[in-house]
Write a structure and sequence with these properties.
Potassium Channel Kv1.1, Chain A; elongated; BTB domain-containing protein
């Protein structure tokens, strides 16, 4: 199996209860004073997908009605939604509940002893738009049990089912209590497994990406920062099929599945995660692009080969050819000539897509494999592998620690300040250029991913507009050739 565990359901259906006419009522609180009559509407697409699943829910109907006997005071104390609905008499529901309970009081009948037909009834409509599940009645019942502090009936508990409960908790404004319940049961989130794509390295399958997204949604809604930050980092590092312009036939046929809440993460998370991956890929790709531009640009007055031989220009041409051959063979670079058919073909298929859903660390590992060929034995240390190696290690180090994933506390406190969008693009209209110097790679403080300076530097590196990866090679360099303590071009001889 290459996916997450199938959706967990209670094969026996909801626990047996009583009936109010033809409405089955589940006793969440046997002595409760209120009946919730919930109508669950399931879309045709969700029903079709449920029928194809290995463990379909017990009821595959477009409309399911279910009753739940609950306690009004418990709902009002733990849910902002029910506190407004049942506590504000400006609402019809609150007024009806108040009148029904007053009628029981005048008849000297305790709600706990009253027949179901004597209790107030509140109508609720719920659809599958956010959850895309056909067994929403079971999740709603478990949510009511959590609010009433009684054990849930669905076991074992899967991440998908937990995500559905989290979505319902957010809908009914009761996430604080559900968060405490999640901490009390000590639920362990399963690890994410990747598939090896040979050429492009490890990648997420559709099912495991969905599982990862569900982890992010649950940890965001139910306040699990220690799960949230590393999970968001994983999605940034591996990418998402929702951020790609190309879908396979299966994705196109099941487009409705992507409307579930976890496929479009709330509170600006979806856009932020995509932005962070784009920024990182732009930074990584700038490393080979920078060196290619140095070899190709006609504005370079001196060759990149610093040996000063008459063969230095030939050395540059040789290294340029080696780099282009390597990058094109690994599908990290593509060419488009001036023919209209080539231009149309490029825009129809897009740029090289082999690595669009690949691990960023694998891309860096691939770049490190650039050959260390030399034009001859006199041109040692002229290869790109040596020049890019230190830079790629520096970038790789910035991907560690907590600089890539989103800090839940900071994001909830000030989304604008925490977003990379604030740093991406100069506010004064000038492009920000990151100049890589030898001090950056040698600073021991930056070796620890958890250090504040390291996280801050990671943000500076990945949100720059341009990168000068050879700035360190030119530190202290002046015109002329060094000869002892005297450099040609100085006005006087050294004393």
């Amino acid at each position: 199996m290459d996916g997450s565990a199938p959706e967990q359901v209670n094969p026996a259906g909801p626990p047996p209860g009583k009936y109010l006419g033809d409405l089955a009522v589940v006793d969440i609180a046997p002595e409760g004073d209120l009946v919730l009559r919930v109508t669950f509407n399931t879309s045709k697409e969700t029903l079709t997908a449920a029928k194809k699943s290995k463990e379909p829910p017990t009821a595959l109907k477009p409309t399911v009605k279910q009753g739940y006997r609950v306690q009004t005071s418990v709902l009002k104390a733990n849910s902002g939604y029910f506190n407004r609905l049942l506590g504000d008499t400006r609402f019809v529901e609150a007024k009806a509940v108040e009148n029904a309970l007053q009628k029981l009081s005048l008849s000297n009948v305790k709600p706990s002893e009253a027949d179901l037909s004597e209790l107030p009834i509140v109508e609720i409509n719920e659809d599958d738009e956010a959850s895309r599940t056909a067994n929403l009645s079971l999740a709603f019942g478990d949510l009511m049990r959590i609010l009433h502090r009684v054990p849930i009936t669905t076991k074992p508990l899967a991440v998908r089912y937990l995500a559905i409960i989290a979505v319902l908790a957010d809908r009914f404004d009761c996430t604080p209590l559900v968060s405490k319940w999640l901490a009390a049961i000590k639920f362990k989130f399963p690890p994410i497994t990747t598939q090896n794509q040979n050429r492009t390295g490890p990648a997420l399958s559709k099912s495991f990406e969905e599982l990862l997204r569900q982890k992010i949604l649950v940890s965001w809604l139910l306040d699990r920062p220690l799960v949230f930050q590393p999970s968001t980092r994983e999605l940034v590092m591996y990418g998402s099929r929702r951020w790609c312009t190309l879908f396979d036939e299966e994705d196109e046929k099941s487009e409705h599945v992507y409307t579930a809440a976890w496929w479009d993460l709330p509170s600006g998370l979806e856009q932020e995660l995509q932005l962070r991956r784009d920024c990182i890929l732009n930074t990584v790709s700038s490393v080979p692009s920078h060196f290619l531009s140095l070899y190709i640009s006609p504005s370079q007055s001196r060759p990149q080969c610093k040996l000063g031989y008459t063969s230095s220009p030939s050395c540059d041409s040789f290294q340029l050819g080696v780099a282009i051959k390597f990058l094109t063979n690994r599908n990290l670079l593509s060419f488009v000539d001036f023919a209209p058919k080539s231009y149309d073909k490029f825009h129809a298929s897009g740029p090289p897509n082999d690595y669009i859903m690949s691990d960023v660390l694998h891309i860096i590992k691939t770049l490190k494999q650039c050959p260390a060929y030399q034009i001859d034995n006199n041109h040692r240390h002229c290869d790109l592998r040596g020049r890019m190696g230190r830079i790629l290690e520096f970038v790789e180090a910035r991907l560690g620690g907590g600089g890539v994933g989103i800090n839940r506390v900071e994001w909830a406190k000030d989304r604008v300040e925490a977003s990379w969008e604030r740093r991406h693009g100069a506010e004064d209209g000038e492009e920000r250029v990151l100049k890589y110097t030898s001090s950056m790679s040698s600073d021991q403080r930056l070796r620890y991913g958890g250090a504040f300076a390291a996280e801050k530097l990671a943000r500076e590196v990945f949100t720059a507009d341009e990168w000068d990866w050879t700035a360190g090679e030119n530190e202290g360099e002046t015109e002329g050739i060094s000869f002892g303590k005297w450099k040609l071009g100085e006005k006087s001889f050294p004393k």
